Amino acid sequence: MTIRVLLVDDQPLLRTGFRMILEAESDLVVVGEAGDGQQALDQVRALQPDVVLMDIRMPRMDGVEATRRIAGPGRDGPAKVLVLTTFDLDEYVVEALRAGASGFLLKDVPAEELVQAIRVVADGAAMLAPSITRRLLDMYATKLPSGDEAPPQALTALTERELEVLRLVARGLSNAEIAAELFVSETTVKTHVGHVLTKLQLRDRVQAAVYAYESGLVRPGAL
Where in the sequence is 4-aspartylphosphate found (predicted)? Predict the structure, then answer.
């Protein structure tokens, strides 16, 4: 299967560099480019990409709002958004993840990791590295629940094993790594993850991780 990619960045030189990397792969094709969020929306409608590589800070419409309109709540289009930024983890990236992005990478990521992330996201999974989750916790520790509050009512719908799986997802572990940690099969882990997403009404693992932090299920220093 060929994965159709749309490049969204306000710097033409970066778009050219990404295009060269991606078009060297037989299963990836760059179907278009956009220099801001509004152009991205137009291109998504016209070109129907599978994955949108989205910069955050752009003129006219930023990547957060564009992500919300492409992949946010109530949007059922096929395009997945993979956020790329030079700014490391900041509040804009967190907002993009909340808005429906399926992953987050820095622009200086090695080429092979960028290519793999696109494949992972196109396959319907999420790209959230453990290093990103650690920075998320560290940066937003002061904004997270103290632990004294009652947990959200939705968490009571999860079994103990599902809670355990959610904590490991929030740490950035893959299904295979969770299976090894819990001494179960990868198929069993996939089933538990599916139950967690359904019960909490979450789109993917990225949103599950953010939910785990915001609900206080995962605490700073727990990684």
Answer: 55
